[in-house]
Amino acid sequence: MTSPDGLLSRHRAVLPDWLALYYERPIEITRGEGRHVWDAEGNRYLDFFGGILTTMTAHALPEVTRAVTDQARRVLHTSTLYLNRPMVELAEKVAGLSGIPDARVFFTTSGTEANDTALLLASAYRRSNQVLAMRNSYHGRSFSTVGITGNAAWSPTSLSPLQTLYVHGSVRSRGPFAGLPDGEFIDACVADLRDLLDQTGGVAALIAEPIQGVGGFTSGPDGLFAAFREVLNERGILWISDEVQTGWGRTGEHFWGWQAHGAAGPPDMLTFAKGIGNGMSIGGVVARAEVMNCLDANSISTFGGSPVTMAAGQANLGYLLEHDLQGNARRVGALLMERLREAAAGVDIVREVRGRGLMIGIELVAPGTDEPSPVLASAVVEAAREGGLLIGKGGGPGGSVLRVAPPLSLTEAEAKEGAAILERALAAASAAKATTGGVA
Ligand code: PMP
User: Fold this and answer.
1) Which of 49, 134, 274 to mutate to test the pocket of ligand 1 (most atoms within 8 A of CB)?
2) pLDDT tens digit string along 243-278?
3) N or C: which terminal CB in the chain sees fewer CB atoms within 10 Å?
4) A GO molecular-function term, please (predicted)?
5) 251-255: Cβ within 8 A, 24+ apart
């Protein structure tokens, strides 16, 4: 057992200052199994955040470990210049699952790179560098993806190779259309979109997360993108669905987030990442062949689709489908939502508990106000850690949404255990605020 302190100072001495770490005493995770991880001091945590970080299915899933080691023993990586069986096989599966007709798949190593590629394709196909993105969106922090990030706090530079117009729709509870019923909210967002487009020339694409992830697990009403799609179709504008957090069944009801929008789908392109590799670096773009093939390029990067990561993706996807983890997300997600709503009932710092499947956000406010409280969010996250539970924080327009996104194999018992820890953490943060005179 080692203290993380020595490692922390070495981290600070050699890594960028902007590489943020969670917790006042950052955690070094040294082992994982199922839905649990252990730190270097031997503490055990139930992981309610890793599901959207990388570990979609379960930590150290034996099926994935076996596939990776088998593949690594044979060949680690060659190049996209040679035929690559694991890549072809995974591409066939992903194309088939995507819902996009005549789909082609390009693998990358991250979600950022996947979105970067989708933007490159859209701008080449439409011969335009103008794009539409949603307010409060997050799509990565590369040079092009910060240009479509609809929250200045997550964007390290205001410069961009893209010209971006931001659209309303994913945040229901704040902004000019707050409080409108679903139909009127959609109509207002569509009118806003039309107005934007009437003043703009040939826009390449709309990129959007069906449920905003970093943005605090918030989404427009079902059908919003169906309504947007009509407007986009009139003008030949492509629709890119960023499924990095919503893909592979996490939302329970649907395999992809875009499917909640019924008549809207399928999109022209979808991007995915993280979860599919269950810890190995996989991202990718699925696009209609006509869009994917518009580029005159040999490749974009030579490393995406490495056989080891593809083997991991196949084993992970196989496990997910075989064990119906989408169904598990629906069932256990419903239980978890119920428990978290009970836990939050009457707690004066909770504004809303929302989400779908195993993607649940708890929005906090300073008591008696409608003001986001990132300080309270940090207090709950610290208290949860003390109780043995890891959750995400910092999402949302005001940085005060707690994010709950466990691996999709979460059991009912673990859901109850995690909800109970969170209940105590919320109560502790709420009580501390009362004795210190408020920590908004
Ligand atoms: N898109 C979304 C919706 C994301 O949540 C993220 C990461 N949080 C990304 C893209 C970027 O993915 P990555 O970190 O793998 O580059």
Assistant:
1) 274
2) 999 999 999 999 999 999 878 889 999 999 988 999
3) N
4) transaminase activity
5) 251/210, 251/211, 251/329, 251/356, 251/357, 251/359, 252/326, 252/327, 252/329, 252/330, 252/331, 252/333, 252/334, 252/356, 252/357, 252/358, 253/330, 253/356, 253/357, 255/97, 255/326
